[in-house]
Design goal:
The complex is a heterodimer of chains A (about 325) and B (about 375).
Chain A lengths: L10 H36 L15 H11 L10 H17 L18 H22 L3 H32 L4 H7 L13 H14 L11 H4 L9 H26 L15 H22 L5 H30 L1
Chain B lengths: L8 E5 L11 E7 L2 E8 L7 H5 L4 H9 L6 H16 L5 H30 L3 H21 L8 E2 L2 E2 L7 H24 L2 H7 L7 H6 L5 H4 L7 H4 L20 H25 L19 E9 L2 E9 L7 E5 L1 H6 L2 H5 L4 H11 L3 H4 L2
Antiparallel strand pairs in B: 1-2, 2-3, 4-5, 6-7, 7-8
Helix pairs in contact in B: 2-3, 3-4, 4-5, 4-11, 4-14, 5-6, 6-11
The chains are: A mainly alpha (about 325), B alpha+beta (about 375).
Chain lengths: ~325, ~375
């Protein structure tokens, strides 16, 4: 199969890569803009409210206006903050969030980087964001920020373990960590999707993923009612926007990843429906997950720190390990 | 390698903080996230109500009581006018007393709804807040129709109430009571069984009945320990002895019991309202025979009633003049708050919010 990265190195090829990357960037930025809008609308409806409806038709320009406001806001750095780290942290948070998108395959011929260790690449890079949050909490020289940063470190490290282990089952079934191969293995009817043989893994993955996203009920690093705003309490203007941007890009990434790992990626639920393009199926499943994330936020209260740790180490980790054992036994006995 | 040096963190919570429900400040010493010492600082909202009252006549004091516990202004109105009426031996017309009782019970529901919504918000659930305020809005609408104000009503007068119920108002209240039962069930279904919510509040901030009494706690804070003490039952005032209702009590005195008690109190208030609306006299005076200038005889009096937050008391010393010589309010929020430093030691920052919210304070009342 001819893939664009097999082309010989040339200015033309370099230009093509840059164009494709820009196109992806545009898609992500538009997604973030309208994910925020969508989230506010959906949660608004769930709470008998209208949601944004004043800026532009149906409030569609609300996020644009918000971002414009953040751009022109004064950029404050607290007097006693560690300046270098304070400036570094937002960049460190959002760069990995974009780089992880490189390995996501949206369709059979639409991967950007066909890495053999695609999933590991994702986990390794997204871990960098944790460091950024700890740095932000530390550099702000604010006690609330520090508490938020420390919570974040503990939480994200704890949840990365079950997150990775929950996918081991999928890797065993596929015998690959390449995200494209994982999707290809799920071809056929919808019961071939990993979500069914890997139901335990799926459950663990979703819980751990929500936690990795720092979203309700795991939004402790920025628990408003306790820590005011947590690690980004001292950030303003566009530095603050970078943190928000990173958060929503991760929503995008996690929703993509869940679709790929467990919901069959671009595969139609029935082969008869293959005439609908794979990208549509992908977008549909993706939207379903994004909606569920917002839905959870409108429904659940927040966990306490100690309960959070207990859940990760006492419930999710054993479950993930049991899943690996069951998968191994399944492969051994059922083939 | 040497031992890592650790030190305690002194954290200032408030007076601007999302979970202190106003301008309450608390200085906590933290060891990691565990509180080793907590010092509440209050007084940011002090307006000198009691001192101001000394140069006002009794009718003029009523609007000041609205601003004490601004979530439950009707009960504050009542405790003052009730004290003056008792001092002067005034008779209040039955229709007026019914109206007072109805608005007080509506107010109790509204107040508990605010508590429920903000408490869930403290714990991290966003939606219940808006559901609660949606229902509270309907109560405020009813009050608005009755007396033209949504928050600071200035509704009661010595000897009666200022405004009679407009036509059709009683039916609207009836409709509200009927639908509120269903809403309450919805709220229980939505929140009360939630595993995360229960694990957050069960066993948190527990104390026993002796401690509660020693600290002078009242209201749901006292009843959660199992003490059946409700002034509406134990020292009936207004018309409460005419109606049937239960006094819900807890057992363990933790945040969960306080939650259950308050939620059940909403249902009991609805029961009282149902009966009161049924027996509401179709016509009659709303203002008793009151002298033009209210001059209670020289002497002193203390009356207490059950506000949504506990026992609210009014102590008046009169020298026979139109202004009180001394006026003192016993504010349940202020008294209930005193147990906070004791409860917080050894708890985490997260539980600080849970426990403070569970006490249910209103800063306007703490700092009167």
């Amino acid at each position: 199969m001819q893939r664009f990265w097999d082309d010989p190195v040339s200015w033309e090829a370099a230009g093509r890569y840059a164009l494709v990357a820009l196109a992806l960037l545009a898609v992500v930025i538009v997604f973030v803009t309208y994910a925020i809008y969508f989230e506010r609308k959906v949660i608004g409806w769930m709470q008998f409210r209208q949601g944004p409806n004043r800026t532009g038709p149906l409030g569609l320009l609300q996020t644009v206006a918000d971002v414009a406001k953040l751009l022109v806001k004064e950029d404050t750095i607290p007097a006693k903050a560690d300046k270098a780290l304070f400036v570094l942290a937002p960049a460190l948070a959002f760069i990995p969030s974009f780089t992880v998108l490189a390995v996501i395959p949206y369709g059979l011929n639409l991967p950007f980087a066909d890495l053999n260790v695609g999933f590991l690449y994702y986990v390794a890079l997204s871990g960098v964001t944790t460091i950024a949050i700890v740095i932000a909490g530390w550099a702000s020289n604010n006690k609330y920020a520090l508490l938020g940063g420390m919570r974040s470190a503990a939480q994200m490290i704890s949840y990365e373990v079950p997150l990775v282990l929950s996918v081991v089952g999928v890797a065993m079934l596929t015998e690959s960590l390449n995200l494209r191969d994982i999707v290809l293995r799920q071809e056929g009817y919808f019961w071939h999707w990993n979500v069914f043989p890997q139901i335990i893994g799926f459950a663990v993955f979703v819980v751990a993923a929500v936690s990795e996203l720092n979203r309700t009920p795991f939004d402790l690093p920025e628990a408003e009612s306790e820590l005011v705003a947590g690690y980004h309490v001292e950030y303003s203007g566009f530095r603050f926007a970078f943190f928000m941007l990173a958060e929503y890009v991760y929503i995008y990434a996690i929703a993509c990843l869940t679709t790929i790992l467990f919901l069959g990626g671009w595969n139609a639920p029935f082969p008869q429906l293959d005439f609908i393009p794979g990208l549509v199926w992908f977008a549909f499943k993706f939207a379903l997950i994004v909606f569920s994330l917002f839905w959870i936020r409108a429904t659940l209260p927040r966990l306490r720190v100690d309960q959070l740790m207990g859940l990760a180490w006492k419930a999710l980790l054993p479950l993930a390990l049991a899943n690996i054992l069951l998968t191994a036994l399944g492969i051994e006995w059922l083939g | 390698m040497g031992v890592i040096r650790t030190e305690e963190l002194l954290l200032n919570v408030g007076p601007q903080h999302p979970s202190t429900h106003g301008v309450f400040r608390i200085i906590v010493k933290l060891d990691g996230e565990i509180i080793t010492e907590a010092t509440p600082v209050m007084g940011y909202l002090h307006r000198g109500t009691e001192k101001l009252a000394e140069s006002l006549n009794y009718t003029q004091i009523i609007p000041y009581t609205d601003r004490m516990d601004y979530v439950s202004a009707m009960t504050n109105n009542y405790v003052l006018v009730h004290a003056v009426e008792k001092m002067m031996g005034l008779r209040v017309p039955e229709r007026a007393e019914f109206l007072r009782l109805i608005v007080m019970e509506l107010q109790r529901i509204a107040s508990h709804l605010v508590w429920w919504g903000t408490y869930l918000l403290d714990i991290g659930a966003l939606s219940p807040f808006l559901y609660a305020f949606n229902d509270r809005e309907r109560i405020l609408q009813l009050f608005n129709e009755l007396c033209g104000a949504r928050l600071t009503y200035n509704y009661m007068r010595v000897g009666g109430v200022k405004w009679d119920a407009p036509e059709g108002w009683i039916d609207k209240v009836k409709a509200f009571v009927k639908s509120m039962y269903g809403k309450l069930d919805d709220y229980h279904a939505l929140v009360s069984g939630n595993e995360i919510f229960l694990s957050r509040i069960k066993g948190v901030g527990a104390y026993d009945a002796e401690t509660a009494i020693a600290y002078g706690l009242s209201g749901a804070n006292l009843r959660s320990t199992g003490v059946k003490w409700d002034l509406r039952k134990n020292e009936p005032y207004s018309l409460y002895d005419r109606f049937e209702f239960d006094v819900p009590v807890g057992r363990n005195g933790d945040c969960y019991d306080r939650y259950v008690v308050r939620m059940e109190e909403i249902r009991q208030s609805l029961r009282i309202l149902e009966q009161a609306l049924e027996q509401f006299p179709p016509e009659g005076e709303t203002m008793g025979k009151v002298p033009r200038v209210i001059r209670p005889p020289a002497g002193e009096i203390y009356v207490r009633i059950e506000s949504p937050r506990g026992e609210i008391g009014c102590y008046i010393v009169s020298t026979g003049k139109a202004e009180p010589y001394r006026l003192k309010f016993r504010r349940p929020s202020f008294v209930n708050l005193q147990i906070l430093p004791k409860l917080l030691v050894g708890e985490s920052m997260t539980n600080l919010v849970t426990i403070l919210g569970g006490i249910d304070i209103v800063l306007g009342e703490v700092d009167c």
